Amino acid sequence: MDALYAASGGAKWLVLAGLDRYLFGEWLQREPRTRPLPAIGSSIGSWRLACAAQTDPVAALDRGHDGYIFGQEYSAAPDAREISTVSAALLDRLLGQTGASAVLAHPFLRLHIVTARGRGLTATTNRRVLQAGLAIAATANAVTRRTLGWHFTRTIFSAQPASSPFRTLHDLPTEHRVLTAAALRDVLLASGSIPLVMEGVRLPMWPTEVHWDGGVTDYHLDLDPPAGDGLVLYPHFYPYIVPGWFDKALPWRRAHGPQLARTLLIAPSDAFVASLPGGKIPDRRDFASLSHTVREQRWQAVRERTAELGDELRALITSGDIAAHVEPLPDGA
Q1: Per-residue pLDDT tens digits for 22-36
Q2: Burial of 247 (0-12, 13-18, 19+ CB in 10 A)
Q3: C-beta separation of 274 from 43 below 8 A
Q4: What is the CA radius of gyration of the chain?
Q5: Is 40 in contact with 73 (CB distance < 8 Å)?
Q6: 10 Å Cβ neighbour count for 85?
Q7: Contact at 8 Å (CB) between 32 and 64?
Q8: Per DSSP, what are the bridge partners of residue 233?
Q9: Alpha-carbon separation of residue 166 from 161, 276, 285 (angstroms)
Q10: Residue 282 clears pLDDT 90, i.e. is over it
Q11: Does the structure show a pLDDT above 80 at 13?
């Protein structure tokens, strides 16, 4: 395996709870790895990988899931500051006392966190100016994704950026920054800071910049894989990949091509999703459509049900028959 990917998706990470517990807490721990494993994530994906890189990944996931389900209490009409404050508290809970140092000292997992640094009208926390900048960016993106570089710079934080295997990315303007234990929490918060929903993050090291959710540029991580002939492991919410945040409304904008040739995408089946409470994967709209109590109950039920996915994957791997269950990604996945 040459890389591990984790996508944006907010509450959708709960549908991967069982898979993450098995993959991060058991499968990756089976035998010592002799070479680094680059792991790259945006938004909630970076939070998941921050759990994977801690000393006890399952305990970190439990803290993260508990906080995400039961620790999000808001006023009737929360503003961006309130949501950002609650999110920062969730990260503190996920990382615990030693998580930040453990992540940077992991023996083989090399965490890469994606943020979208604002440019021009998106390099502000002024809501009206930001709204205008986002509208222009969305309109231009509908023509070609390459215009995102006019409005955002993909910024990748890692402990050793000079040797990052993602330094060759050229589809969008990309910068590489050093990730430290002291900055980890703020960078993770920036990577999940949805424009207009949360506040942009000004990192202490670069106080004049405004960083937004990494999903703006890399929603589902449609990236060229690192050099090599190994697989890219991609536990994902969906059986398809949407390149950027603005592409969600563009059904023709789906990842395809040679960059997926080495990708092993693992996703819940349609039948499993239909069997979940409400017949769907949790998402941010649940805050508006469900009462606080019902949302907590549904999200916890989803979390518990996903143990089935981890158990099934474990059984397939143990049987040695997993190759018989692998299917080609559809064209335009």
Answers
A1: 999 999 998 778 899
A2: buried
A3: no
A4: 19
A5: no
A6: 14
A7: no
A8: 4, 264
A9: 9, 36, 33
A10: yes
A11: yes
The CA angle 260-113-329, to the nearest 5 degrees, is: 15
Q: Under DSSP, is residue 118 helix (H, G, I), strand (E, B) or coil?
A: strand
Within 13 Å, how many C-alpha atoms sit on residue 275's CB side? 10
Please state the separation of Cα 221 from the chain's center in Å. Answer: 9
Give the separation between CA 118 and CA 100, rounded to whole angstroms: 26
Whether the per-residue pLDDT at 333 is higher than 70: the answer is no
What mean pLDDT is predicted for residues 111-118? Answer: 98
In the chain, count H helices and then E strands.
12, 8
Strand partners, 227: none
Q: What is the pLDDT of residue 69?
A: 98
Instruction: Give the span between the Cα atoms of 34 and 54, in whole angstroms.
Output: 18
Given pLDDT bands bounded at 50, 70 and 90, which one contains residue 331?
A: low
**DSSP state, residue 225:** P
Ramachandran quadrant class, 279 (left: phi over 0; alpha: psi -120 to 50; beta: rest): left
For the chain, the first-to-last Cα distance in angstroms comes to 21
